[in-house]
User: Fold these one by one.
Assistant:
Number 1:
Amino acid sequence: MRNLKLIIQREYLARVRNKTFIIMTFLSPLILVGMFALIAYLSMLNSSEQRIIGLYDETKMFASEFKDQEQVQYLDLSGKTFEEAKKMVNEQEYYGLIYIPENVNRDVEGVQFFGKESPGLGTIQAIEKTIADRLTREELIERGIDVNQLNEAKTEVRIEIQNFSGERTSKMSNYIKMFFGGAAGYLLMMFIIIYGNMVMRSVIEEKTNRIIEIIVSSVKPIQLMMGKVLGTSLAGITQFTIWVLLAGVLAITSFYVLGIDIFTVQKSQLETVEQIAQPEIAQLVMDVINLPILSLVIFFLIYFIGGYFLYSAIYAAIGAAVDSETDTQQFMFPVILPLMLGIYVGFFSVIENPHGSVSTIFSMIPLTSPIVMLMRIPFGVPWWELAISVGILIITNFGVIWLAAKIYRVGILMYGKKASYKELFKWLKY
């Protein structure tokens, strides 16, 4: 036990004293925020670019329908010949040219867009909607229907969403839950891959330098493996704790600026927010406050420990079975595949139906449950499902660690022979 403690301490200190670890621990949140800010700025910059689109309308009825906008200006070129209009748009390097044929009411497929590059989806949809709306109005008038009365009869319905306890949520609530759940699942996957690779590289390095031969003379192989896994996991938990504290400080500061007491949120405080922001934004703030953030953080730690132990044992076994990092490639795909599957199931199944059979099953399978269950938690998961999922994960951990230790015990002293899956199965019998 004393040897295990020394190995854990050595591995932990080797990680947290590393300059790269210290710098990235405090710099990563800033980099993440900066990246989102940069993406938002580039998107705004891209959308603010002024575009000129020519319009050649043979029907002479659509020029008034295309209204200039902040980013798009329409130029009516119907007074020229079609070839002159195309030449002008090409020479002036306009964004494109819309061609509307004379028989468009009989052949809507005749509408064309000419441009040097393929236009954006939003641009095409806006053009299609403008033409379709005008043609629909003309068709209604032709059938003797009063368009004005029809427009006046239209009613806009906005549904207010509440649960049975009277708690309001917005239509954007699911997107907020998706964002927080997806971020937690993706972050966990990255943690598992990064720290699992650290364990694997450490094993390969000690094996290559023949240091391992000296170490195993006084330490049992399973103690060495568990020491590496535990020491590295503690470093990961330390880093995550610092990130949570930094995020908490930023969140509390933000709510303080908005005048919200996050510990005793009352309706009067929502009204305070509404005074300085639109009601929709105020409701979004309340949706964020009502998220089970504490549960998400707690279960992130639980699933991080469970998922990390599971995969790190596999990474350690792979490191012991090979002589160099290049040789690990044949074993990495089966390890990465469940993690990627968890991400895809999360984004394509959990978001659509968080309590469906696919989401529930994959949140119980130990290789995918750390990611999928984290994505489900913001949507509300019964305590018994969480208990079953964590229980299965813990039991699987014992089994995988036991199997990985058998491979590790044989592999760390094997040199000069490339291990195969068949060879690994043989080692399990020793």
Note: Residues 221-258 form the longest helix (38 residues).
Number 2:
Amino acid sequence: MPAAGGALEDLLHPDAEEQEERTFTDERIFDTIWERAEGGERGNLYRPTPPIARTQRHLFRYFLDGSLRSYFLGTALEGDRDTPVHYAQIGACVLLRRDDGTVQREHLEVRHLLLASKQRLSDEAWRFLESLCQNTPAVLEDLAAPDVISRAYSDADLRVRAGGKTRYKMRELEAELMRKVLRELRDDCWLIADGSLMFQPILKTLQERYKQSIPPVLGVSKNFRKDPQFVLGRGPGAQRLSIYSLLANLKHEHRTAAFSAYDGQVAFWYVRLRPQGAVDYPLMGVVKCELVTPNREPVPSELVDLLSRALVAERNVTPHGRDRRWHAHLYPIYLAEQAIRNAFYSREVIQQLMRWR
């Protein structure tokens, strides 16, 4: 599986989204195909998914994404104690796409965070930081407080841990906006959420609202874990595939079988949006899809096929040259991200506003 062109630099280190996915579950071995075709038969390992254009069937109408910007402001010193101080902007946006293809902003929210370690400061110093946030849109957050994402980072490396805390608060904001649009969704009106649905606030919301049916929400990840192993069959003749082996044989406009994750609470599979010859690395042009299964039953293969075919049609238009993840980007998700970033303060504004006395 050769890497050429600009792929090498991107593949040197795991993406933040890939690292985030590891924090949601420790599962690495997946041996249950979590779908059923008509007649109760198991689906094949690979299935064709020719695109269904929006003009044929407009299935995906809402798109949700989040974004963040974080700045290291400096180190606060108090006697022999110290803590890094960060300022972060987090945002989430939901776009609605009309039948004619135009999009409108349904919900957009941006929040401002000031992050420091509470346990590294005295109560008096912490109250002083709180007073700095009064009469401002900023909220003081304890970057050392445990959560599912930042707990993966060492307490000693608080500057890195601040990045995990910021991502966690961004994902919480995404969950809030998702709850606002759930009442608008139905079988012919789906939401695509950027990232994994295994984030607990999102997963819990969908399970509580849709107790016995599959929520009309599809999680799509441009970056995903590269360490899963897939076991096909039982006994001595079982076949074990790494994710590289699984996706190397995944053809253009095809999907893999859906597998069970999170103790049957989530079904996931992979879809190839672009031919391998059009990208720098065979894992590029592939997205991971997730569905929540509140009843913990396999999903119909026909539904997985339909979602995958509609998703393949979303590969165009693509933000080629504007985002290094263009090969796996969905254009409405890209537009939602741009709407958030346009609402953020620029780096120049931050540098002018932030002043140490």
Note: The mean pLDDT is 88.
Number 3:
Amino acid sequence: MKTGKVYLVGAGPGDPKLLTLRGKECLEQAEVVIYDYLANPALLEHVRPEAERIYVGRRGRGEYGDQAEINRLMIDRARAGKIVVRLKGGDPFVFGRGGEEAEAVAEAAVPFEVVPGVTSAVAAPAYAGIPVTHRTLASSVALVTGHEDPLKPSPTVEWDRLASTSGTVIFLMGMKNLPAIVAHLTASGRPATTPVALIRWGTRAEQLTVIGTLADIVRKAEAAKLEPPTVIVVGEVVRLREKLNWFESRPLFGTTVLVTRPREQAGEFADLLAGYGARVLTMPTIAIVPPADWRPLDRAIGDLAWYDWVIFTSVNGVRFFFERLRALGRDARALGRARFAAIGPKTAEALAGQGFKADVVPDEYQAEGVLEAFKKEDVKGVRILIPRAEVARDLLPEELRARGADVTVAVAYRTVRPEADGKALKEQLRRREVGVVTFTSSSSVRNYVELFADQAEASVLTANAVVACIGPITAETAESCGLKVGIRSKENTIPALAEAIVSHVAHSSCDV
């Protein structure tokens, strides 16, 4: 039997992009992942589908899982020959009980490795615009537990020293004991005017920061109903937040955007939105799958040398066409003298990735744009192949036929509705937790509406958010389904849609 191993991996402070490259490698290799409440669930996307996932977390004020049981899980799975990742919020060795877990694994003679993570003690203040050290304000920083082990014979936090330092003091796991922390510091001589910052869910899109002083921070925390996980920062560096607050100043900070694109294509859009500060919810309402019958496309591929033009109307059309070409044992030579048209720059980019340059890319990224571009071409008697989705507008092939072209439409892929949690979505819409609902195709709109009891329910609940559509065709479909469209992109591109959302939110804020 192969030898197992335990990796104690720091999950970072919350933003999944702050995971280290080594941490990502470990997750990709893991056969067992044991994770806790502070590890962002998004990190599990790096884990293989067949890997065992074991949740051992707890919420801040809830009951702790039994540490001995967590140790046993790691050791038993590793002894069974498994690669085990113990995924821990922040850094494993910064108030994460990682030292205890490493000791247990070492004593069991199980091989292990520690993968440091970005600690929230530094990252949360940074995302709140607070440097923990500063040349003129703080030459030292102290990391302090806000919750000492209750089994200790006596407390060991040196309050007198913490109160007398001119540096920064950071408390982790301290929200429950905030009144006691404040009382200890002030009783030991720290001025009541000392600035304090409380940062909940630091580095995440839902980050919340409360600023005060030792004199009023308890009252402000109660008013804000702050709960763990919250980082407490005490010191003069807190004053820099007014100037350095970059994260919460982004244009979409505080806005939740629902992305309904296919899962494999949602990443670009989600990254753009997150870069603008949005909290992104991904709930694909369409999935891209092969056609039910390959024969029409196979016949077209068999006759490729016969065509003068191949027109691609989507990135998916490019992908499935060339995958099928290779599956049939053919290569680029089969395309003969054909020229290529791409409906937009992303489709042209996908075509270039296959080694072909688009001869035509219209200024308007839809069927009408392609038709306008082809006005320069004499298409009478010209043979044209259009590999496309099973359900699509017939404007392009019909108009080209009307101009005398010999057009073959071959289904290269289908869109279907994947499983989605419609109940959870409805509840989020009722509670007005979703600010913007986005659609990038007519299929995504229709499948979204099917998650509701009927169009009336979809219309009423979605009215609690703003509907954003890419291009006029998708917007028309949304309106026909009873959804009021509030945002339309000027171009049929993902960046243009993201920019339109930013512009809408900015103008909405100005009106408040």
Note: The two ends are 66 Å apart (CA to CA).
Number 4:
Amino acid sequence: MKTEIRIVNSRKLFTEFIHLPAKIHKDHEGWLPPVYADDNKFFDPGFNNSFNSCDTVLALAYNNGVAHGRIMGIIHHKYNELKHEKTARFGFLECYDESETASALLRFIEKWALERGMNQVAGPYGFSDKDPQGFMIEGFHDIPLLSASCNLPYIVELTENNGYSKLIDCLTYRFSIDVLLPEIYQRVQQRVISTQRYRILEFTSKKQLKPYVVPILELVNETYHQLFGFYPLNKEEMKEFANRYMPVLDPRHVKVVMLQNEVVAFVIGLANMSEGIIKAKGKLFPFGWYHIIRSIKRATQLDLMLGAVKSEHQGLGLEITMGMHLLESSKKAGFKTIETHLILESNTRMRAVIERLNAPVVKRFRVFQKTIA
């Protein structure tokens, strides 16, 4: 079997790139398709501002004239400068269970990276840690997440067989709305409230929430700068991120902590809409939107999307206070469980807060790396 790599440079190949995963995952029960309206914009430089600061390439692998795999290459120059690295990223790798196809795609990205002066490749990774990162290595039969990968197990072995090894893992935890909180959490919340320094903002409408979107994302830039793979969002990327999630965001599940007129902490939850996206097959029209909205209303799980506390206010219990408010509003909304966003295994502080609830790890995602020069 001879594998041919074609760079995506036409509308026809772009369409093939976008829709190939649905063919590969045709028999994958529980596979979460992308929302195609979002995917078409994400991979289009005309819509996605992240392309402006990166070298990129989209490629397809063909066997006997039929597309069998795809991959994206990214060189994020500003991130490399910030971290003093020469790293290329591979992302959105999809292929059938064929070692030759996987090898051809990964070798293509490695050659592409070497030609641009890079000395290592890491992935799967997108433009930032807000994009799906890592291959799932645990949790294959669990409810999928909108913000995470939904790969088949064999892709991990195919990647490792090409000389890639673990760089870092990301974890998600799940706990019940009725979780028994440690007594210390109650004391911490009372202490935060009694100081009267902070105000906890809760919202009932998107109109109320809208003025806080940019300050929230500015706090993300400030607090995430040391995390693996993160590069600060610019104004356009903030706008794109807000536009992607605001239509399905319920303001009741956003909590903001203010100190005078400054946002110093926040947490955002989103109803798990995986069931609706699966029924809609990723298409909003003609009736896909109905399935997605219906699944949001019927969801029993709240997925945490983002959260942060300004550095000088960490360790004072603000995350616990926000979490308790979120538990209360989630219970009123009828949710049964909460699943965390992806937490780096090295983020021992955040893991300790969650693990005090005796919450189990339900999913694990792995980012790989390979030295190429």
Note: Residues 99-115 form the longest helix (17 residues).
